[in-house]
Amino acid sequence: MNNSSLSAINRDTVVFLFINGAHHVHHLILPALSFARIQDRYRTILISGSKDNSSIIRKTWKAFGRPDCDFLELSKPLRYYIPNYKHKLFPPPYSYWNHIQKYIRDSAAVISTSHEVPKYFVQFDINIPSLIYFYHGTGTREYGFDPHLDFFDLLFVPGLYHYRRLQKAVEIDSSKIRVIGQPKLDWLSLMMKHKPKLFNNDNPIFYYNPHWDIGLSSIEKWSKPLLEYFIINSQFNLVFAPHPLLKHFKNRNGYNLNFKAPNTANNILIDLSSAAGLDGTYNTASDVYIGDVSSVVTEWIYNRPRPCVFLNSHHIDWRTNPSYESWFCGNVITKISDLSAALETAAQTNEFQVEQETYIQRMVLFDDKSAAENSATILFDFLQGK
After folding, report:
1. pLDDT tens digits, residue range 199-237?
2. Residue 72 sits in which domain range?
3. For the chain, what is the largest distance between any 2 Cα atoms, rounded to a whole number of angstroms?
């Protein structure tokens, strides 16, 4: 990659923004690198907002054959050099926009995985670049169908489910939507070649991956009974790895993350924010998924169909709620007293394999070309046709 600067951006430049958390990067990096590989009409520049993002970008670039592109890591705002400033894992994206807006306004296109970009285009009166969106996951919550998505000039979606729901719920014109598949699944295929070894035994591994939003997550109500179960039942292993935004927003939400297991509990791994919770390490290594609402379920099933247990700690009437589509892929429990039976059954068999296979077909396009290749070709043709 060529080290670049914001001043190098012009009408022949396509900007890929990586200024959100690291959990966004895997969904956009291969489309960006594929775009750089297939054409030389536009200069491709990747803008990173953190060292964690930059690490993923560089590692992927090397594994993908080092296509010719430009790279820039933005300097953190000065206040974020204060150790543990606001207990944030990374500077919030808004902290960069005042600086970058005067440069990206002259580009051919800005590509992002963030719903918030349209408001910055309006705020700073940015009109020239095309604004293009990639989903960062395959979630089905209302969050993923924000009416402001209609502000984008082009949206890349993973499968028919999102294509149809955007048309129905947000009334976005179908001419603005392209179904390409799920780029992170390409990334996992490229980068996760081997099943990681997490424990010094061959016992079943349960992967607990609760949501970061306390209003949706099971972590506040049920995480301690869950940990106690695995402390007692050492014949099972537990990876306790919530979404990293839980730690990122813990002060804002007033939440205590003081989770510990006894030193003798060699069957429990607690990880609140490392890369392994994002890069497929735990997904690939585990046998049973435990969670609430997350698009990680799609990655779980795509990797290989396996048992899922969903924790309905908020007693949601979920069957007619589209935000909980993934819960048809596993056993849903509403009482903590049912936890033991649900986990023991899941350790033995996947009762929902048929439902999982149907779900994945709706959520992700299966095509001869990868999602990254599809998006790169469509993006180039779109820009040429402007």
Report:
1. 999 999 999 998 767 677 788 788 888 999 999 999 999
2. 2-182+366-384
3. 63
